[in-house]
Specification:
By secondary structure, the chain is an alpha+beta fold. The chain has eight helices and 26 strands. The protein has helices spanning about 70, 115-120, 230-310, 320-340, 340-345, 350-360, 380-400, 435-450; strands at about 5, 10-15, 20-25, 30-35, 45-50, 55-60, 60-65, 80, 95, 100-105, 110-115, 125-135, 135-140, 145, 155-160, 170-175, 180-185, 185-190, 195-205, 210-215, 220, 365-375, 405-410, 415-425, 450-460, 460-470. Helix 3 (about 230-310) packs antiparallel against helix 4, helix 3 crosses helix 8 and helix 7 (about 380-400) runs antiparallel to helix 8 (about 435-450).
C-alpha cells in the first residue's frame, strides 16, 4: 500500500504499487478493485490527493483525475494527463495541493496543473508560435508579416498546450480559395512565395470531424521586385513627363535660339536686299540722268546738225534720216522713262503705271488691262518697288509667255498694297534651281520690303498674287 485517502465517513481508498487501487466500504466490508486490466491505466500508483470533489491519482503512466462521486457509485470517469499532453514526466511520484493548482512531482522536476476540471480538461488546446523565420532571419510574430522579394521563404514553427488531447490533427492553406493541406509536423515551410497578398490559416481537430481555427487568418505580404511595384509605373511616367518637358524646353530653347539667329540672318538679308535695290535704283537714276543729260542732248544736237547739212546739200534722204534720228530719240526717252518714271514721285503709283502702260502699249504685241483701286500711297520707296515689280512681270510675259492679254489689278488699302497680275500665255514649270533671273529679281524686291508672293502656272497662263505691307503710321503724342 503506497497511500490511503478518506473519501467519506464509510469509504476509504487504498493505492498500491503493483496492483492498482481499491475503494473499500467499512460499513459492509465490500470493495471495488481498479487496475490496468480493469478500467484504469496503470498498476503502480505512487500518490493520491483528494481536493474538494476531485481525486488526483499519480501513477507510473501519468496523472489521472476523477470525481469522488463517480467512485462512490462505482462508475469512475477519468481524465488523463501524461508527458505528451503537458506533464514534465510520465511517472508522478508525489502530489501536493498548491492552492489553485496541483503540483505533480517527478524525478525530472514538477508540473503545475489547474485545480478545476474545466481548466484541466478544456476542450481546446492552446496554440502558440515558437518561431517565425524568413530566409533564416527571425521575424516578430506579433508584427505584420511583410517579406522582401529575395526573402520569400517563410518558416513557421508552432506548438499546442493541451492536457487532454494527446494527438491533434492539423491542416493549413494560404489562399482563401485554395485546398486545405494536412500536415503532421509542428512546422510549416512556405517556399518561394510569389509576390502578392496571402492569408495563412491553420486549423486543428481532435477528432478529424470538427475543425477549429488556431488563430485569426494571418495576412502575409510578399513585396514585388522594385521594378514591378505600384509606384514604379507612376514614377516612371512622371519621370518620362519630366524628361519630355525638359526635352521640350531644350528643343524650344534651341528653336528660339535658331529663330533668333534666323531673324538676324533674315534682317541682314533684308538689309542686303534693300541695299542692293537702293544701289540698283541709284544706278538706274545715274544711267537715266547720263542718258538724258549726255547721250540724249548730244543725240538731239547731232540730229539737228545732220538735218541742216542734209538740207543744205539738198540730200533726198534728209527726211528719212531725220525720222530715224527721231525714232532713236523717242526710244531713248522711253528707256529713260523706264529707268526713272518722272510721274511716280510727282503723282504716285497709279498715275505712273497708267503713263507707263500708255507709253509701251502701242509697241507691244499684247493687250494690257490696268485697273486700280483705293488711294495713292505717299511712300515713294514702296511705290517704286511696286512699279519695278509690275515692270518686271510685264517684261517676263512679253519675253517668255507669248501672252496676248495681260491683266493688272492694283489695290491700295490702309495696311497693304495688293497686286494681282495675270496673263494668258504658256506659263512655266517652277524650278528653284533653274529659276530665271526675272523671277529672282521679283522675289528679291518683294522680300526686301517684307512682302509675300503667291503664284500659279498652268494651261491658263500664270497668276501672281503679291501683298506689300504698309508701315504703320505713328500716332501723334
Amino acid at each position: 500500500i503506497s497511500d490511503i485517502s478518506v473519501l467519506n465517513d464509510t469509504m476509504l481508498l487504498f493505492s498500491t504499487t503493483g496492483n492498482g487501487f481499491i475503494v473499500y466500504n467499512t460499513a459492509n466490508r465490500k470493495s471495488n478493485h481498479y487496475h490496468a486490466g480493469n478500467n484504469f491505466i496503470a498498476n503502480n500508483i505512487y500518490s493520491i490527493l483528494k481536493k474538494d470533489s476531485l481525486l488526483w491519482i499519480g501513477t507510473e503512466k501519468g496523472l489521472a483525475v476523477t470525481s469522488v462521486a463517480s467512485l462512490l457509485v462505482g462508475k469512475p470517469r477519468y481524465r488523463f494527463l501524461n508527458k505528451s499532453s503537458g506533464l514534465g514526466s510520465n511517472i508522478v511520484n508525489f502530489l501536493a495541493d498548491g492552492g489553485r493548482a496541483i503540483w505533480a512531482f517527478s524525478d525530472d522536476g514538477f508540473s503545475v496543473i489547474p485545480d478545476t476540471i474545466t481548466r484541466f480538461a478544456g476542450p481546446h488546446p492552446v496554440f502558440y508560435i515558437k518561431s517565425l523565420e524568413s530566409n533564416h532571419k527571425r521575424l516578430n510574430p506579433a508584427e505584420a508579416t511583410v517579406l522582401d522579394p529575395d526573402g520569400n521563404n517563410l518558416k513557421i514553427s508552432f506548438g499546442f498546450i493541451s492536457f487532454n488531447n494527446n494527438s491533434v490533427l492539423l491542416r493549413y492553406k494560404i489562399l482563401d480559395d485554395a485546398v486545405w493541406q494536412k500536415t503532421e509536423d509542428d512546422m510549416l515551410e512556405l517556399i518561394a512565395l510569389a509576390p502578392g497578398e496571402y492569408s495563412l490559416r491553420i486549423q486543428y481537430s481532435p477528432d478529424n470531424i470538427n475543425w477549429y481555427d488556431c488563430f485569426e487568418p494571418r495576412p502575409i505580404t510578399v513585396l514585388p521586385p522594385w521594378h514591378k511595384r505600384w509606384y514604379v509605373a507612376p514614377t516612371a511616367g512622371l519621370l518620362a513627363l519630366l524628361l519630355g518637358y525638359l526635352y521640350f524646353r531644350h528643343q524650344r530653347s534651341i528653336y528660339r535660339q535658331k529663330h533668333h539667329y534666323l531673324r538676324i540672318i533674315n534682317e541682314h538679308q533684308q538689309k542686303l536686299l534693300q541695299s542692293e535695290v537702293v544701289t540698283l535704283e541709284r544706278e538706274r537714276n545715274r544711267i537715266a540722268k547720263e542718258l538724258h543729260d549726255g547721250v540724249g542732248t548730244t543725240l538731239t544736237a547731232i540730229k539737228l546738225r545732220v538735218g541742216q547739212l542734209l538740207r543744205q546739200h539738198q540730200d533726198p534722204t534728209a527726211d528719212e534720216i531725220e525720222d530715224q534720228f527721231q525714232g532713236t530719240v523717242t526710244e531713248l526717252k522711253n528707256i529713260i522713262y523706264g529707268l526713272t518714271p518722272p510721274s511716280l514721285e510727282r503723282y504716285g503709283l497709279f498715275t505712273a503705271l497708267r503713263n507707263y502702260v500708255n507709253k509701251i502699249q502701242k509697241n507691244l504685241p499684247a493687250r494690257i488691262s490696268l485697273k486700280t483701286y483705293g488711294y495713292e500711297v505717299s511712300n515713294y520707296e514702296l511705290n517704286l518697288m511696286s512699279f519695278r515689280i509690275i515692270q518686271e512681270l510685264i517684261s517676263n510675259s512679253i519675253k517668255h509667255s507669248s501672252a496676248k492679254n495681260l491683266s493688272i489689278h492694283v489695290s491700295c488699302f490702309h495696311d497693304l498694297i495688293s497686286i494681282i497680275y495675270e496673263d494668258d500665255g504658256i506659263g512655266f514649270k517652277y524650278d528653284p534651281e533653274r529659276n530665271g533671273l526675272g523671277l529672282d529679281s521679283i522675289e528679291s524686291r518683294i522680300h526686301s520690303i517684307q512682302g509675300t508672293l503667291k503664284f500659279d502656272s498652268g494651261d491658263f497662263g500664270i497668276s501672281y498674287n503679291i501683298e506689300i505691307p504698309l508701315p504703320k503710321k505713328k500716332e501723334a503724342p
